[in-house]
Specification:
Helices cover 39% and strands 24% of the residues. By secondary structure, the chain is α+β, with helices and mostly antiparallel strands. The strands form 3 sheets. A 5-stranded antiparallel beta sheet has the order 4-3-7-6-5, with helices on both faces. Strands 1-2 form a two-stranded antiparallel ribbon. A two-stranded antiparallel sheet has the order 8-9. Strand 5 and strand 6 form a beta hairpin. Helix 2 runs antiparallel to helix 4, helix 2 crosses helix 5 and helix 4 crosses helix 5. The mean pLDDT is 85. It is found in: Cytoplasm; Golgi apparatus membrane; Cytoplasmic vesicle, COPI-coated vesicle membrane.
Length: 176
């Protein structure tokens, strides 16, 4: 698909569709965020400022999409969390929406439908893996929540001790 600007110039088609994904709490604080375009929001300060602005514009809105600072942002809220996927201003909103749905549904399955801040914080490692399974460097890898969860779900009993995270080892020692 070739995009045309108002002036009639063409955008080259690209696989680098997603500019960033983030999850914010109900106060606009970052839970998890990944930005893929090295030319926009390059510093943590710029990212957090953008996230605060994004949250302020969306936390009371009834919409699912917003244009902000030259980015198309689709979002979804649940209990005390806000999920966002950002793309360029000329990006297809339906593609961004499918990434958002994949992110939300994957997290929902990973957390056994208990999508809230406390549970996400307890399972942040799995949620981070889901982020990586959905998108790599701005390229969409997968949008099927079942297959994303299949690869992102941590099965500690299958993982050798040397490859487990400290959190997994501590958690497993408490279960014993």
């Amino acid at each position: 698909m070739v995009h045309t600007t108002m002036e009639g110039s063409l955008f080259e088609p690209t696989l680098y569709i997603v500019k960033g994904m983030c999850i914010l709490d109900n106060e606009g604080n970052r839970i998890l965020a990944k930005y893929y375009d090295k030319n926009i929001l390059t510093t943590t300060k710029e990212q957090k400022s953008f996230e605060k602005n994004l949250f302020n514009k969306t936390h009371r809105a009834n919409a699912e999409i917003i244009m902000l600072d030259g980015l198309t942002c689709v979002y979804k809220s649940n209990v005390d969390l806000f999920f966002y996927v950002m793309g360029s201003s000329h990006e297809n909103e339906l593609i961004l929406q499918s990434v958002l749905n994949a992110l939300y549904e994957s997290v929902s399955i990973l957390l056994r439908r208990n999508v809230e801040k406390r549970v996400i914080m307890e399972n942040l490692d799995s949620v981070m893996l889901a982020f990586d399974e959905i998108c790599d460097g701005g390229v969409i890898l997968d949008s099927d929540p079942t297959s994303i969860v299949g690869r992102a779900a941590l099965r500690t009993e299958d993982v050798p001790l040397g490859e487990q995270t400290v959190a997994q080892i501590i958690f497993n020692s408490w279960d014993s």
